[in-house]
Amino acid sequence: MSALKVLAIAEKELKEYVLKPGSISWGIVFPLVFTLAFAVRFGDVDHLAPGLVSISVLFGTTSFVSSSIIFERRLRTFERLLVAPVSYLEIVLAKVLTGSIFGLFVGFVSLLFLRAFMVYPIWNLPLFVLFLVLSAFAFSALGLYVSLVVENPINAMTWLNLIRLPMMFTSGAIVSLLLFPKWFLAVGLVTPMTYSVDGLRFAMLHYYDVVNPVYALLVLLLLSMVFIYLSIVRVERLY
Description:
By secondary structure, the chain is mostly helical. It has one domain (3-238). The protein has ten helices and no strands. It has helices at 3-18, 21-42, 45-75, 78-83, 88-115, 125-149, 156-170, 182-189, 192-205, 213-238. α1 packs across α5, α5 crosses α6 (125-149) and α6 (125-149) packs antiparallel against α7 (156-170).
């Protein structure tokens, strides 16, 4: 694998899809409106902040990756990468990297806005950045895999919403999982976003609800690798 090839593809993706007025404005407006709506409704911004940042990263990464894949598969421009002297691994990593960069941008916009309402400072900023990066990679890889699995690219966003919207409530992002019956914890533990939320919560507030931050770190790493591998397998089967 060549890191230079991955970066070259990622640079192309950034120029074609991210560094556009529409993408940048969406990346700013979405987290502002989204976080403001929940901050005004629920009030406890400090407890909500990790979940809202995680949700922003989830929607930012998956929306970008899905949109680029939908566009390229419909116009059959994705095949240009396949005939280039690059491997499937390099293509997938570049897609995941670009989606992660956009998701991190959306996540930091959300954080900057939330800081105006939060009472407590971020407990461990380097740890927060680590969990944010891992979350972006895991969510970006998930979005890429779902977009590749769907036979009709137009339906990719619909399937993503069927995954993303329930995760907002089964991950403890909005309401703590400790407030639900114990059987519901099993649902939370199979929700990828739970590990992002609890990891960010520990980094920001020095406590977690259900998942130890060490486990959250390992699971996010594992999820990233699994979805990257599954995406490579899917590309091989499609083409």
